[in-house]
Structure formats: structure tokens, C-alpha cells
């Protein structure tokens, strides 16, 4: 994989030969340490996988919401959803706002599960109800923890 954000990818990427003489295969997407990388470093694949994974878990929680108390809902989201959104967030924080907004949408769904807030509730009010910061603030906090 060749990383390049500005220039077009060459039609015929250079061949890389290993020590034993075999050629390495060129790929557009690669999963490394649980984080999907693409050649443009747009993180579109990573965010698509995150969104899918979180949506499936939130769907399960919504289907079984009658079984949980408010405290249990809070704990379930905190232990099952937030770690997925937090893993590698300092890496993909440079993704476009359009992609990051997709993660905000699933984060808001998780908060709606906990708070029973209607869809029309403003996200700032939901953050106050549950006591969690926005995903952008969470990413910034994690970034500061990494660099300091």
C-alpha cells in the first residue's frame, strides 16, 4: 500500500520484492492492529466498519431495552459502545467532518438508548443528560493524553 493524500495513485505501483524473491501484493485497504487504513488515509473504511459494528450493538440493545434498568443501560453503553468508538480515535481524528458526523450519529443513538430522549432532542442536551462529552471532545482529550 502506498500512502498519498494529494496525488493520484500510480496506475502501476512499483513492485516490491522480498528477500526470498517474491513480490508483495498491492492492496487499497489494510487492517493493521485493528485499524483499517486506506491508501488515501481518508479512514472511510475504518469509519464504515465502526459505524456498522456500533449500529449492530445498539440495535441489539434497543431490541432488548425493556430488560434493562436505567443504570444497566448506562453501564452497557459505557462498556460496550464507547470503547469501540474510542479505540484508535487519535489516528482517525483527521478524517473529514462528513465521515466523523456518521460516528456522531451512532453516538447520539447510544445516548438516546440510555436517556430515552426523542429524536428531536438537541445533542448538547443529551450530553448533559448522560454526563458525557461529545465525540470530538473525547478525541481531543485522548490526543492530549497521547502527546503529553
What does this structure look like?
The chain has about 150 residues and is mainly α. The protein folds into 2 domains: about 1-40, no CATH class; about 45-145, no CATH class. About 55% of the residues lie in helices and about 5% in strands. It contains 7 helices and 2 strands, in the order ββααααααα. The protein has a two-stranded antiparallel sheet with strand order 1-2. A hairpin with a 2-residue loop joins β1 (about 30) and β2 (about 35-40). α1 (about 45-65) runs parallel beside α5, α2 runs antiparallel to α5 (about 95-115) and α5 (about 95-115) packs across α6. About 15% of the residues are buried. The model has no long low-confidence stretch (mean pLDDT about 90).
Taken from the alpha-carbon principal axes, the silhouette is elongated
**DSSP strand tally:** 2
Q: What is the count of distinct domains?
A: 2
Mean pLDDT: 88
* End-to-end distance: 31 Å
Poorly predicted runs are none
Kindly list the characteristics that best describe this protein:
148 residues; mainly alpha; 2 strands; two-stranded antiparallel sheet; 7 helices; elongated
Task: Please sum up the structure shown.
The protein is mainly α and 148 residues long. It has helices at residues 44-63, 70-80, 82-86, 89-92, 97-115, 123-130, 135-147, and strands at residues 29-32, 35-38.
Break the fold down into its secondary structure elements and pairings:
Layout: E1 29-32, E2 35-38, H1 44-63, H2 70-80, H3 82-86, H4 89-92, H5 97-115, H6 123-130, H7 135-147
Antiparallel strand pairs: 1-2
Helix pairs in contact: 1-5, 2-5, 5-6
Amino acid at each position: 500500500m502506498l500512502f498519498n493524500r494529494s496525488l493520484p495513485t500510480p496506475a502501476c505501483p512499483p513492485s516490491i520484492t522480498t528477500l526470498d524473491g517474491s513480490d508483495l501484493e498491492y492492496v487499497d485497504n489494510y487492517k493493521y492492529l485493528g485499524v483499517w487504513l486506506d491508501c488515501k488515509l481518508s479512514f472511510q473504511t475504518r469509519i464504515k466498519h465502526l459505524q456498522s459494528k456500533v449500529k449492530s450493538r445498539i440495535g441489539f440493545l434497543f431490541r432488548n431495552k425493556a430488560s434493562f434498568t436505567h443504570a444497566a443501560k448506562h453501564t452497557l453503553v459505557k462498556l460496550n459502545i464507547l470503547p469501540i468508538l474510542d479505540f484508535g480515535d487519535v489516528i482517525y481524528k483527521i478524517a473529514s467532518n462528513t465521515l466523523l458526523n456518521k460516528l456522531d450519529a451512532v453516538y447520539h443513538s447510544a445516548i438516546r438508548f440510555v436517556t430515552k430522549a426523542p429524536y428531536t432532542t438537541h445533542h448538547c442536551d443529551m450530553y448533559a443528560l448522560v454526563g458525557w462529552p461529545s465525540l470530538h471532545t473525547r478525541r481531543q482529550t485522548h490526543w492530549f493524553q497521547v502527546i503529553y
